[in-house]
Amino acid sequence: MSVVVAPSPILAVSGAVAGAPGSPDAAVAWHYGDPLGEQRAAVTRTAVIDRSHRFVLRITGAERLTWLHTISSQHIAGLGDGQSAENLDLDLNGRVLNHFVLTELDSAVWIDTEGDRGQALLDFLKKMVFWADAQPAEADYAVLSLLGPKAAEVLATLGVATVPGTYEAVALPDGGFVRRMPWPTADSFDLVVPRDRLAEFWTRLTEAGAEPAGMWTFEALRVAAVRPRIGLDTDERTIPHEARWIGGPAEFGAVHLDKGCYRGQETVARVHNLGKPPRHLVLLHLDGSADERPEIGADITAGGRAIGRLGTVIDHYELGPIALALIKRTVPADTALTAGPAAAAIDPDSVPSDDSPQAGRLAVDRLRGR
């Protein structure tokens, strides 16, 4: 069942154009009149993007980290104050249900995730508390993203004297916190602020020099960075290995391979030690001369045979029309592809290298005398 997210007050800003009706970004601005220029600003100067349609929740209680550690894919039991990580909620078969970012700060775990999935994630967490000292609850906070090489100058106007390192967070003097992320650009920061002060923070950031940019900018840079968005670049069959979510915080991943049991761990371990993922996430370049863009979820074909699923399709200010796709791992990078009405080509630099033998497979071969 789809969840309707309330429109952001930032849509009242002059020039704001809302995301397409029915899209995951319908509640926020898609652009402010110059989408390609906004992307350039986010890469060369600094831009602020309204991502207030994300769902924010807060977990308190003395056992919040050790409890969450046991039911999710990331190693977070020893997370220190001001540290963050990406994490996954998997089903029993290891398929991805939720992707979220968490921050431990001031005796609480803060989580933000997709707006249309947040309530379901919160409901799941509440059901899993049992006897643990952990209290998950929705938090009336909103997310703004600040991108660009001049972000530190803008943050200084909010009282942030020291820019955090990757996945580190510091409290904002006036409430909320700022967290550095490794994507979609090298200079990416999330501000998690009280929702009733969202417009105030937006004004302060833009008056300090951050240029307004829409979700088109964030999505284009995310796709170029080959970072998946759940529900767009994943389907009901997606496992973490396919979507590049394997790894601890140091690897910018969401699944730690050296931790205790959690739901879906058996599949993760089996694929890592004995097998290969059936698909992998790649960047596609699309033929811009096609009359229309292909739709998310469309089949990708090679020689008339379906070999993959199309994800986010977007126009990038330098790369032109690009997309993410889950492609069968055995498809060579130079294969001519078709995505809906458009010809497509795999960016060879985006193809994961997974040819090395797994430790588990090597052990089995040794036992068999191979």
UniProtKB/TrEMBL annotation:
Keyword Cell inner membrane: no
Name of the protein described by the UniProt record: Folate-binding protein YgfZ
Gene source species: Nocardia colli
Pfam families linked to this entry: GCV_T (PF01571)
Keyword Zinc-finger: no
One GO BP annotation of this record: iron-sulfur cluster assembly
InterPro entries attached to this UniProt entry: GCVT_N (IPR006222), TrmE/GcvT-like (IPR027266), YgfZ/GCV_T_CS (IPR017703), YgfZ/GcvT (IPR045179)
Keywords: Transit peptide
Record domain GCVT N-terminal: where: 38-243
Region of interest (Disordered), ranges: 344-370
Biased composition (Low complexity): 344-357
Lineage of source species: Bacteria, Bacillati, Actinomycetota, Actinomycetes, Mycobacteriales
